[in-house]
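Hi everyone, sorry if this is the wrong subforum. Our group has a chain we'd like a structural model of before ordering constructs, and none of us has done structure prediction before. Sequence below.
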Amino acid sequence: MHHQTIGRVAMAAVAVTTAAGLLSGCSYGASADEAPKQTVGVSGAKLSADTVKIGYFPNLTHATALVGLQDGLFQKELGSTRIKSQYFNAGPAEIEALNAGSIDIGWIGPNSAINGYAKSHGTSLRIIGGSASGGVKLVVNPAKIGSLDDLRGKKIATPQLGGTQDVALLNYLAGKGYKVDPASGAGDVNVLRTENKVVPEAYKSGSIDGAWVPEPTASRLVTLGAKVLLDEKSLWPGGVFVTTNIIVSQKFLAAHPDVVEAVLRGAVAANAFIKADPEKAKADANLRIKADTGNALPAAILDPAWAGIDFIDDPLAATLQTGADHAVAAGLLDKPELAGIVDLTLLNKVLTAAGRPAVADAGLGVK
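Answer:
Right subforum, don't worry. Here is the predicted structure as tokens:
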């Protein structure tokens, strides 16, 4: 296998963000054991692992995980295999946890998955399924920014250096002819890396003029008087691009494919439930967010945020490659060798069993 290399800037982002999060105590939440509701999985056989450790964000773009945990859909498939869940607020911290064996399976943004795979020279993880598309917007202060032509000299936040939204904003600005230093964020437009939970206060204080952020942060800013200037869907063919994927450590996948398959069955069931009863699923996702963070989302934020996200089983591998290309063009990533980052064997087994068509790996699959 060819070695993959991650750019120094992106590597620094991983290290700094992870270290900062661990020191502050806010990069991840306490784990919780979730008691099995039945003695064996739906197959009738005990699975090969007693416990599976699942990571996710308490964020609506991770609603597949939120609903799957809240409604017991993973546990139904896992049977006597216990779930140990842990939530994160930053992709690099989740990748670090996966590498350390603190989690086995995780929901995460595509650029964090790409960075983790490249930094490990292709040995750390596989992308095994999709979860969400869309739900990312450029939201601005209408008193300062009236149109997309008014961005010069303005301060726009993204959640983290080298993250999925950071790459998307830098790529967009480059396409408009703006010059921005990828490391510092300084330039014709000032890109400020700011955690999602801090963005609303930064907006209220006037320290940022807008933000390129996922839901529900975008809708939270709208309740503060901000205006949606651009929905990232408009930049992608068919309005479809990957926001959240499912990853697994290669070690756990090799040792416990039956457990991974059970989690994927639960994920497919969660997405089917979201489509069949979106109002109930939305409420259940919000219950999980409240349980994790102590605060439920009010309807004024929850409803528009939920409406902007599409929940999918397909990891949209072609857009994953496009996102990596954007990161390389932005100067945040050395060109990585992504062949092998995707393994859809188990997902396609689950989809086929459900009478649904298989999904494609866009040439990024394991050879």
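For your construct planning: The two ends are 10 Å apart (CA to CA). The CA atoms of residues 144 and 239 lie 28 Å apart.
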